[in-house]
């Protein structure tokens, strides 16, 4: 009996010694030398990793080999509550203009169609987001990241595009005015918040939609559409290390803005 116990103890000790180094290595964080210059890894939870660039951009990567697609979502931390008097609806108008082209991507819509991209954006009180979902491939992901980086700081935000998109947004406003539930939400929102901009509907006032100055829209874009005020998310079938390198290459070259974001001191009730 003692002989079998000794044999079992020896076998158990061997197994512990064999697997201990592997377990210790598995919990070791990725070395900084494996990351491109200017990239900091903030942590990983259940396969989802968060990183930060030197210019302030945060990005979250969630690789999933079981998916046939990739989704790239860029969220800017600005919404309708950041609008000033006479500018209601401006954040939503800007969302529409972002798909109208930038310096190095003058006609992104044609490329969206050619590549089979599903695209959209949305605006709310505190954020504006843009997403692209497409068949998984290195070329598609590279293009999507490059477009987002260029649109962040090089979008045209032109008068001609505002003139055409204004009528589209005004139609959305009129649809809301003909929807009892939308009208009730707008009225309830205004009652809940006396002074804070949460009391204003994101769609804005009709007169502001029709008359906002392009200069105001451009200034709003330059102030808030910056890497230190955005979060990029990539999810689906892609190689994480390669994606980190592409993101560092496309977004890392954007300078960290010197401006300070305006402080909103009105406290919601």
Describe the overall structure:
With 269 residues, the protein is of the alpha+beta class. Helices cover 44% and strands 18% of the residues. A seven-stranded mixed sheet has the order 1-2-3-7-4-6-5, with helices on one face. Strand 1 and strand 2 form a beta hairpin. Helix 4 (138-154) runs parallel beside helix 9. The longest helix has 25 residues, at 2-26. The relative contact order is 0.20. Residues 1-30 have low confidence and may be disordered.
Short structural description:
By secondary structure, the protein is of the alpha+beta class. Helices cover 44% and strands 18% of the residues. Strand 1 and strand 2 (48-53) form a beta hairpin.
Number of DSSP-assigned strands: 7
How many H/I helical runs?
A: 9
Give the overall pLDDT as a whole number. 90
Helix content: 40-55%
How would a textbook summarize the main sheet?
7 strands, mixed
The sequence of SSEs as H and E is: HEEEEHHEEHHHHHEH
Question: What percent strand?
Answer: 15-25%
């Amino acid at each position: 009996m003692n002989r079998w116990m000794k044999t079992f103890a020896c076998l158990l000790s061997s197994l512990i010694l064999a697997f201990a180094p592997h377990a210790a290595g598995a919990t070791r964080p990725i070395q900084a030398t494996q990351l491109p210059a200017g990239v900091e890894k903030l942590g990983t939870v259940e396969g989802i990793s968060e990183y930060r660039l030197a210019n302030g951009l945060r990005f979250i990567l969630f690789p999933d080999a079981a998916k046939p697609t990739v989704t790239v979502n860029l969220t800017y931390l600005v919404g309708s509550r950041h609008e000033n008097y006479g500018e209601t609806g401006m954040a939503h108008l800007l969302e529409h203009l972002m798909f109208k082209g930038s310096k190095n991507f003058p006609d992104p819509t044609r490329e969206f169609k050619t590549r089979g991209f599903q695209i959209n954006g949305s605006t709310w009180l505190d954020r504006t987001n843009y997403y692209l979902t497409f068949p998984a491939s290195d070329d598609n992901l590279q293009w999507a990241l490059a477009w987002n980086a260029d649109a962040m700081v090089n979008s045209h935000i032109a008068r001609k595009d505002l003139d055409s998109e204004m009528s589209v947004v005004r139609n959305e406003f009129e649809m809301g005015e003909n929807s009892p539930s939308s009208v009730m939400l707008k009225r309830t929102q205004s009652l809940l918040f006396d002074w804070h901009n949460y009391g204003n509907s994101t769609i804005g006032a009709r007169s502001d939609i029709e008359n906002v100055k392009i200069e105001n829209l451009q200034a709003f874009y330059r102030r808030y559409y910056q890497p230190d005020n955005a979060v990029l998310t990539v999810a689906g079938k892609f190689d994480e290390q390669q994606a980190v390198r592409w993101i560092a290459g496309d977004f890392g070259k954007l300078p960290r803005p010197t401006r300070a974001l305006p402080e909103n001191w009105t406290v919601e009730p």
